[in-house]
């Protein structure tokens, strides 16, 4: 049995989540509930739970304020939010788990199954990555660390180490500056949306490239971007004007 705490400032939402967990997650025991940052920190330190259901927006602060104040960052965390909060980007960068309200039972069960099986050391690294990414995004800095979820581990990759991301069916292949290739079971569309505004651009159906890693441009056959690993990435005709405009502005 895994001990869990629900941190949610809206009483009805708190009661509903508790009922859903009790009905559909038989291995989870709700040992405490809290409605504000101060009570949440006290309950977490007192009970040392295995799992936190943590609302992002609380009346006295945020769920991140809770994490900053607890003594141990090893509990698994599932964030909950009623809308697409600004912090969702940091959460997605870090491959942390979250549920949008109203909470779907299937998504709840899947999230619980995933997080309780995660090793504590991995969870600590993931939360540390999340807090650093949140700080960077709040300060308008642009080098967060992208957490790639692999079969048996999490890989933490700073954006500046990614040269390009190549489509491989339903998978995406990350090509890194150290020569490694990492295959992830997500498609390019997810990373296109996530990396928008971070010097990455989808220039073809098969490629997202790091604009900072372009070595030179070739005008032959419609246009290529030769990357720092010497791989020539074709520029789609539909993307050519946008690509030229973006690159021209970058070099003003």
TrEMBL record:
The keyword DNA-binding applies. The modification 4-aspartylphosphate is found at residue 55. One of its GO terms (biological process) is regulation of DNA-templated transcription. This is LytTR family two component transcriptional regulator. PANTHER family: REGULATOR OF RPOS (PTHR48111), RESPONSE REGULATOR RECEIVER (PTHR48111:SF69). It comes from Chitinophaga japonensis. GO terms for cellular component: cytosol; protein-DNA complex. InterPro entries: CheY-like_superfamily, LytTR_DNA-bd_dom, Sig_transdc_resp-reg_receiver, WalR-like. Keywords: DNA-binding, Phosphoprotein. It comes from the Bacteria. Residues 3-116 form the Response regulatory domain. One of its GO terms (molecular function) is transcription cis-regulatory region binding. Residues 146-249 form the HTH LytTR-type domain.
